[in-house]
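Supplementary Note 3. Input sequence used for the single-chain structure prediction.
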Amino acid sequence: MQSLKELEVGSLRSEPVTVDATFPVSKLIGAIKEHGVYEVFVVEMSKIGMITVRDLLRAKNVSRRGVSALLAHVPKLQPTQKVSEAARIMCEYRIRALPIVEGNSLVGAIQARSILSVMKGSEVGRLAAERVMTAHPVTLDQSASVMKARNLMIRRDIDHLPILGSGELQGMLSSSHVLYSMIPPESPRIGGWTPEDQRRLDMPVKALMDSNPICCDTNEKVDKILGDMAEKKADYCIVKLWEELQGILTYRDLMKLLVEKPETGVPVYMVGLPEDPFEAEAAKTKFTRIVNMLNKSFPTIEEARSKIKFEKREGKERRRYEVSVTIKTTKKVYSYSEVGWDLAAVFDIISSRLKRLLTEKPVRRRRDVRGSRPVQE
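The predicted structure, written as discrete structure tokens, is reproduced below.
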């Protein structure tokens, strides 16, 4: 295991999938589908951006937006950096590839699937599925709409939904299934939503799901699971006991095995920090302070995430920031977003809003003694 963590990323380097910043989004989706990847890189001079399936799923009116509006910048790796560092960043950013650079030039990419290919046969391979899986995954009924699946994936920040029918597993729906149904790459167009778009989003998930999902038993060894996933080019495995759903194994679950767990505090992940080191440090400090403060009152917090996007409007020096925050607790996931021109001020607003959000008490209702109408307390 230690030898795998210490492996240099350059030894697992692969050819990156890149697109031009002027690409229409429909063509970008086509590149993702053609190469079977989760993300693509966009090189703009010395900067390297990334667009993932999840970014495209979150975007509104995708067909009207340019590629540059969806970009997020992620850390770059040198060829000599370790696999453990790549795994940590991938887990934090919830991505499956990272750019490898020499100087300012993109020379390759390190992919989660490449790392997992050498994990097979290691000490980790002898672990049972139940020790690695995410237990009790979010599921959806086969009669639910594609729109509901999309909204659920966005809200819970997930890419896989086991689909049930009469309480039994019927298939698997991925974020890629949903994305390809929203805007077929072979039918690029300009404009807003059409009746055909809405019809696809209203269809039941049963029409899109993979009805023959990859499954394993709770005692199945990771080595065997990795082999099955590689053979079928899958990024998940559903874990069952007899015929009952127990959990799910994804790339991220497996990559976590290579990441050292923090000794203290709540894990805080931030994506899209500005390049200005002072502005970035101020935002990071504020968000970390918010989370630590909340954790004193709410010790059930498991992790906190923040995604920062910005746009610089023509003729204006200042940038308009859009910040989304997700706080995951043992019982619920809280999400909030805010926009503004001052990044530090945006985090101050989010701080007060999050405190109110987490302290909200559920509305209780009592019955009016004069009748049957419920009265809000």
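Residues 185-193, 367-377 have pLDDT under 50 and may be disordered. The CA atoms of residues 171 and 213 lie 6 Å apart.
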